[in-house]
Write a structure and sequence with these properties.
single chain, DUF4398 domain-containing protein, mainly alpha, Four Helix Bundle (Hemerythrin (Met), subunit A), signal
Length: about 130
C-alpha cells in the first residue's frame, strides 16, 4: 500500500509539472506589428497629452491621460527595448506628479522628454526589425 501511494504521488506531481510547463510555454511573444502598434499608440497618447496640457485642459484630465499612456506603454514587450521603455515610463510618472503638484512647466518638459524617448524607442525598434 505504501508503494502504491508513492507511485500515485509521483504520477500526480509529474502530471502537474507538465501541465504548468505547457501553460507557461503557451504564452507567445508579441509580433512585430503588436510591438510597433504599442509604440505608435503610446507616442500618440503622449503627443495628445502634450497638446491637452498646452491647451489648458484640467490637470486631473491630463493626469489621467498620462496614466493612460503609461498603461499603453506596457504593451511594448521587447527585451531590447525594456530598459528604454522603463526609463520613459519613469519620465511619464514624473510628468504626472508634476501635473498633480500644479507644476505645469515641469510637466511639459517631462512630457516632451517622454515623447522624445518614445520616438527613440520607435527608431530603435525599426532599426532592429
Amino acid at each position: 500500500m505504501n508503494t502504491f501511494k508513492k507511485i500515485l504521488l509521483s504520477s500526480v506531481m509529474a502530471i502537474s509539472m507538465s501541465a504548468i510547463s505547457s501553460t507557461a510555454s503557451a504564452v507567445a511573444n508579441p509580433s512585430y506589428e503588436d510591438v510597433k502598434t504599442a509604440i505608435e499608440n503610446t507616442q500618440a497618447k503622449v503627443d495628445e497629452t502634450i497638446a491637452a496640457l498646452n491647451n489648458g485642459t484640467d490637470k486631473e484630465v491630463v493626469a489621467e491621460m498620462i496614466s493612460d499612456a503609461r498603461q499603453l506603454q506596457k504593451d511594448i514587450a521587447n527585451n531590447v527595448l525594456d530598459l528604454k521603455r522603463n526609463q520613459a515610463s519613469n519620465v511619464l510618472k514624473q510628468a504626472r506628479t508634476a501635473v498633480k503638484n500644479n507644476e505645469l512647466e515641469a510637466a511639459k518638459e517631462s512630457l516632451t522628454d517622454a515623447a522624445n524617448r518614445y520616438k527613440e524607442i520607435q527608431n530603435l525598434y525599426a532599426a532592429n526589425h
